[in-house]
Amino acid sequence: MTPIEQIIFLLKAVPVTLAISLLSFLFGLGLGILLAFMRIFESAPLRYLSDSYEKFFRSVPVLAVMLLLYFGVGPFIPIFKDPFFTSVFSLGIVSGANQSQIFRSAIGSVGRTQMLAAISIGLTRFKALRYVILPQALFLAVPGLGSEIALLIKDSAYSFIIGVIELMKHTDILRASQRSLILPYVSSAIIYVVMTFPVATFLDKWGSRKKKELGL
Amino acid sequence: MLFLLDFSTFLISGFLITVEVTLLGVGIGLILGILAALGDIYGGRIIRTIVNLYVEFFRGSPLIVQLFLFYFTIPMLTGLSMDVMMTAILTLSLNSGAYQKGYLKGAMEAVFKDQLMAAISLGLPMWKIFLYVVVPQALRIVIPAWSNELASMGKSTTALIVIGVREFLNTGISITSQTFRPLETFAFITIIYFIWIYSMLKALDMLYDKIKIPGLEPVI
């Protein structure tokens, strides 16, 4: 293969990498919002559950979770025999813990005073969250979510180890078949940078602009 | 899970390698991060461009790609034969340095503004200002962000299995291939990872509470 063909071969795997990252991001987003809500409402068991979940999955390597699910749980629950599903699932449950923290700190920086003000004018706690706190908090969470997407794009490379055919796997195939070492790795590193950099910087800039507009 | 006792020395040696590469990676990365942050803040345009390229490359691409890249290309380009541990520590430090540069730069800028003026007006030369005014305070401010970096480095070391380092997760894979009991083995490994990373985070939290500078809490 010529260098151009090799790069095209790498690019063919990009949709899979993006699919893993986006699906796990969405899964983590749902989980993260749910966990963050469990922390806000005043119910001790829910708060405790959410807190332990967050602590556990923020301190555990994604790859260990992936191997545990794929090799350990796979034989008992057939759906985990599918490497694509397993990698999305593991990245998602770990990302959920990260995203929960992002939402919590966003909600926290909107400020307790606004919550008190909203309650004092007669809104219920839920309505205050829904109409006052969350619309602002979502904007504040955007930069954090941007770097979380970037992190997931990079971490999706782990799924090559359990056999998903994505960008890292294609790089490895090139290394094995073409006997050229530098080109596949340098170009796939550049492809990853091109995917992560715009997301993170764009969302970061957009987030800080919104923050200024909201006067927070 | 009792069968794991048969592999206890094996598991312990794997765990020690994980601890070793984590601490060395973060330690050397700290030095690189300080240099890169100083270069970015005080350097000219060329140094700044180099620092930013370095940071974007290492922060933007997965650790696995970097490991493979160094593992295969360094021997080819330089003719040096590197063993896997050297490659691992080199890659982890460069990777960690790129992340720490961002945290340290933020912390240094937090110290920087008014204290720099004060230090200059006292007649301190530039290098003394860095060494005695900026860096010591920046290191104290940066601890919360830095403990995240330590935790993420502790988790990232699992990527080393791709170049064949015998670290903790890799011992788990070997044990699985001998015993065919992946569920218990990987569950055990995951729990040990949790205990080690969580206790590191807690220890740094306590350290931070001891030595934080009142009024200079981090922005990160």
Short précis:
Chain A is mainly alpha-helical. Helix content of chain A is 81%, strand content 0%. Chain A has helices spanning 3-11, 14-40, 44-58, 62-73, 83-110, 112-120, 125-155, 167-178, 182-214.
How many alpha or pi helices of chain A?
A: 9
Helix content class of chain B: over 70%
Alpha-beta content class of chain B: mainly alpha
Strand content of chain B: under 5%
State the fourth-level CATH superfamily of chain B.
Answer: MetI-like
Structural domains of chain B: how many:
1
Pair of chains with the largest interface and how many residues each contributes: A-B, 40 and 42 residues
Helix content of chain A: over 70%
Oligomer classification? heterodimer
What is the overall pLDDT average of chain A? 89
CATH superfamily of the domain at 15-164 in chain A: MetI-like
H and E order of chain B: HHHHHHHH
CATH architecture of chain B: Orthogonal Bundle
Coarse structural class of chain A = mainly alpha
Could you explain how this protein is built, in words?
The complex is a heterodimer of chains A (216) and B (220). Chain A has helices at residues 3-11, 14-40, 44-58, 62-73, 83-110, 112-120, 125-155, 167-178, 182-214. Chain A is flat and about 70 Å long. With 216 residues, chain A is mainly α. Chain A has a domain at 15-164: MetI-like fold. Chain A has 9 helices and no strands. In chain A, α2 packs antiparallel against α7 (125-155) and α3 (44-58) crosses α5. Chain B is an all-alpha fold and 220 residues long. Chain B is flat, with a radius of gyration of 20 Å. The termini of chain B are far apart. The mean pLDDT of chain B is 89.
